[in-house]
Amino acid sequence: MAAKMYYDRDVDTAPIENKLIAIIGYGSQAHAHAQNLRDSGFNVVVGLREGSSSRAKAEQAGLRVARIEDATREADVVMLLIPDENQPATYTESIEPHLTDGKALAFGHGFNVHFGRIKPPAGVDVFLVAPKGPGHMLRRVYADGAGMPGIFAVGQDATGQARDIALAYARGIGCTRAGVLETTFKEETETDLFGEQSVLCGGVTHLIQAGFETLVDAGYQPEIAYFETLHEVKLIVDLIYEKGFEGMRHSISNTAEFGDYVTGPRIITDETKATMRDVLSDIQTGKFAQRFIEDAESGFPYMNGERSKMRDHKLETVGKELRDMMPFISKKELEV
Ligand SMILES: NC(=O)C1=CN([C@@H]2O[C@H](COP(=O)(O)OP(=O)(O)OC[C@H]3O[C@@H](n4cnc5c(N)ncnc54)[C@H](OP(=O)(O)O)[C@@H]3O)[C@@H](O)[C@H]2O)C=CC1
Ligand SMILES: CC(=O)[C@](C)(O)C(=O)O
Ligand SMILES: [Mg+2]
Ligand SMILES: [Mg+2]
Fold first, then answer.
1. pTM as predicted
2. Can you give the residue range of the structural domain that contains 214?
3. 160 annotated to a ligand binding site
4. What residues does Mg(2+) 1 bind to (predicted)?
5. Same-domain status, 287 and 153
6. Ligand index nearest the alpha carbon of residue 136
7. Is any atom of ligand 1 closer than 6 Å to the C-beta of 86?
8. Packing angle between helix 28-39 and helix 162-172, nearest 10 degrees?
9. pLDDT for the residue numbered 331
10. Rounded to whole angstroms, how far apart are CA atoms 178 and 176?
11. Residue 172 belongs to a domain with what CATH number?
């Protein structure tokens, strides 16, 4: 049976009208939620820690800022959008003491609730609204009049209103312009981690890097390798995004399409799919979450090492030079 999809016309915004929504944090997701909700006509306060470097940016965007404790105390809905690894401590210190019965606690990703790192009190509603895309793009598509798909889940319904509030919230950030469907904290957490690791982030970056290195190591010019294996990815993916595989394959040459069928399965093999199943299993058992939290608790030695290794890679240095010469590629720093 096909999933029930929710669009603007299916969702009543009354459950969050005349309520105050506290957005905790002002990073990638948070600035987009705060600005989109405000532009959709809802009351928003941004909750930031003492001395936050984001305070000025939020105020410049015309948003009211308060301490996390005060924002929680004032608000009806508290959306926690700081990094997953930092959420439990901030929740315990600054949110939980002010989270009185009848309020709603919300998340953009189910990680901490699903893995039992945050246990909300029985008297509050708990839900998630997870837009399926990066925060900066959530803001960009909203401002362009478009929307980003999203999924929502109710973890706890104390007031009988949790589901309606979650849907209204999803509409407020623009997700029902594109399509929203219901999930569970477990399904959102596991599919989101799997997607970002195997396909969207880990899969795509490592596929590009392997292709680039193969060409450069064989003596081809790095600039050609960059255009071929990175820049053109967007052009191909834009066609897939708009028209599916068939539409993309209609646009490419028969030569490319033939090579797609012959070579694709040599690159993404049965072994790759078996590895994907192992990756999914590590997510389901909590093994990945444990590894992430352990690295975070020691100050991210592994993650910082990977970041710095890549910074000086030819793919990044040549890419920066080439992008600088393309005036149509935005040179603006990301807003937050
Ligand atoms: N990034 C994305 O596109 C997506 C993220 N999500 C989920 O959204 C949530 C937020 O992720 P993301 O937007 O990437 O987060 P960011 O890393 O962009 O969050 C940065 C913000 O968090 C604040 N912050 C960081 N640490 C603390 C702390 N210890 N106490 C108080 N405030 C803190 C920062 O405050 P300051 O300004 O003071 O430094 C800053 O405002 C996560 O649950 C994530 O999984 C879901 C979908 C996509
Ligand atoms: C942008 C998004 O959807 C991710 C990849 O799941 C995330 O940033 O966590
Ligand atoms: Mg995601
Ligand atoms: Mg994610």
1. 0.97
2. 196-324
3. no
4. 192, 196
5. no
6. 1
7. yes
8. 90
9. 87
10. 5
11. 3.40.50.720
pLDDT, averaged across the chain: 97
Question: Do 174 and 219 reside in the same domain of the chain?
Answer: no
- What would the pLDDT profile of 39-85 be if each residue is shown by its tens digit? 999 999 999 999 999 999 999 999 999 999 999 999 999 999 999 99
Residue 316's CB: how many other CB atoms inside 10 A?
13
| Ligand 2 atom closest to residue 192's alpha carbon, by position in its atom list | 6
Gap between the Cα atoms of 146 and 80, Å rounded: 24
Q: Using alpha carbons, list the distances in angstroms from residue 321 to 107, 217, 222, 261, 266.
A: 38, 20, 11, 33, 32
Ligand 1 atom closest to the Cα of residue 68 is 31
Residue 196 near ligand 2, beta carbon < 6 Å = yes
Residue 300 lies in a domain: yes
**Spatial CB neighbours of 18, under 8 Å, sequence gap ≥ 6:** 43
Specify whether 119 is located in the same domain as 231.
Answer: no
User: Measured from the CB, is residue 172 less than 6 Å from ligand 1?
Assistant: no
- Check: CB of residue 64 under 8 Å from CB of residue 38: no
Is residue 187 marked as binding? no
Distance from the alpha carbon of residue 52 to the mean position of ligand 2, in angstroms:
23
Atom of ligand 1 nearest to the CA of 135: 3
Q: Which ligand has the minimum distance to the alpha carbon of residue 128?
A: 1
Beta strand 125-131 pairing with 150-156: antiparallel
Helices 135-143 and 28-39 sit at what angle, rounded to 10 degrees?
Answer: 20
φ, ψ at 85 (rounded to 5°): -70, -20
The structural domain count of the chain equals: 2
Out of 31, 33, 98, 109, the active site residue is 109
Q: Is residue 190, in this structure, part of any structural domain at all?
A: no
**Are β-strands 20-24 and 77-80 bridged in parallel, bridged antiparallel, or unpaired?**
parallel
